[in-house]
Specification:
Length: about 210
């Protein structure tokens, strides 16, 4: 677990962890018992927030989608319709990424929806291993270096990670699995990128 990128200084990670924890704490036991994996993110979004998740082939067909919006969208949140749209092709190819996208859009709902009818999230933004604003100062400009994420996108990524991989469950299953990385990915139904980053945050490094 080396080489983890720092979170942006503008993002209050502890507050975001608390937001995600508060969401999980309010989930009725008939939806989730607080221990079973993976965390049922779609059921939480549907039953606790009355937000419908749709898998859509062309997200640029969303109402009021800006003309300049790129086709490479991972997801979007339509706040006025209480809908999350997920890139259907991406979801078929990478099911764990679909879960992360849903968690990311729920993060926007919890933290950023005020005054906005819709939030459109490009693939590069819904990414747990994407560089965040604070990292930009440490990198030399290069065609191969991705630009830092806008703060709201970094916040939504942090929320998704905390929601899908709660710290207490991460620590329990890390010990239970003997620190087996691939078992951790399977248990949490997570991508390797998301798991690697979350392990850095939740598992204390040995000295």
């Amino acid at each position: 677990m080396s080489g983890a990128a720092k979170e942006p200084e503008m993002v209050d990670i502890e507050t975001i962890e608390r937001y995600a924890g508060e969401v999980l704490a309010k989930v009725p036991s008939w939806i989730w018992d607080g221990r079973s994996l993976p965390v049922p993110v779609e059921e939480i979004v549907d039953s606790c927030f009355n937000i419908h998740v749709r898998d859509v082939e062309d997200l640029t067909q969303a109402p009021n989608c800006p003309a300049a919006t790129p086709a490479s969208l991972s997801g979007l949140l339509l706040t006025d319709r209480r809908e999350i749209w997920v890139n259907a092709a991406e979801a078929r190819e990478w099911p764990p990424r679909r879960r992360f996208t849903i968690g990311h859009e729920l993060g926007h709902w919890v933290m950023h929806r005020s005054g906005q009818q819709a939030l459109f999230c490009r693939k590069v933004a819904v990414s747990p291993d994407q560089e965040s604003p604070a990292d930009a100062a440490t990198h030399v400009a290069s065609p191969d270096v991705k630009p830092p994420l806008p703060v709201p996108e970094a916040e939504a990524n942090a929320f998704a990670a905390a929601l899908l991989m709660p710290g207490d469950l991460m620590r329990h299953h890390y010990l239970d699995s003997g620190g087996d990385f691939h078992q951790m990915c399977e248990r949490f139904n997570s991508s390797e990128a998301a798991m690697g980053r979350r392990l850095h945050r939740t598992i204390p490094r040995s000295k």
